[in-house]
């Protein structure tokens, strides 16, 4: 009897609070989704910047190896 009464109370609780729990779950899902999208975007941007820096470094190495361009040696 006690178990049935407790089960009935649980069912009533879920019926009364399902809308609030649904909103809370939605907000939690949106927050997690925003975090994932932000982390992904940051990672992609970071990798792109790293590639750009590597390209600039490669160009700088080429110019250093060629030496300065003056009228005498160009």
Would you write up a description of this structure?
- Helices cover 88% and strands 0% of the residues.
- It is mostly helical.
- The longest helix has 65 residues, at 2-66.
- The chain is rod-shaped and about 105 Å long.
Please outline what is shown here.
It is a single-pass membrane protein. By secondary structure, the chain is mainly alpha-helical.
* Total number of strands: 0
What is the helix fraction of residues, given as a range?
over 70%
Approximate strand percentage = under 5%
Mean pLDDT: 85
Structural category is: mainly alpha
H/E element sequence: H
The whole-angstrom Rg is 31 Å
N- and C-termini, Cα separation: 100 Å
Outline the biggest β-sheet. Answer: none
- Overall, the morphology is rod-shaped
Number of helices: 1
Would you identify the regions where 5 or more consecutive residues have pLDDT less than 50? none
Oligomer: single chain
Keywords:
74 residues, mainly alpha, rod-shaped, 1 helix
Layout of secondary structure:
Elements: H1 2-66
């Amino acid at each position: 009897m006690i178990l049935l009464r407790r089960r009935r109370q649980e069912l009533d609780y879920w019926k009364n609070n399902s809308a609030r729990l649904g909103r809370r779950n939605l907000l939690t899902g949106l927050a997690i989704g925003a975090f994932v999208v932000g982390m992904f975007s940051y990672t992609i941007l970071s990798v792109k910047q790293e590639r750009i820096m590597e390209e600039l470094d490669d160009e700088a190495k080429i110019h250093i190896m060629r030496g300065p361009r003056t009228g005498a040696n160009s």
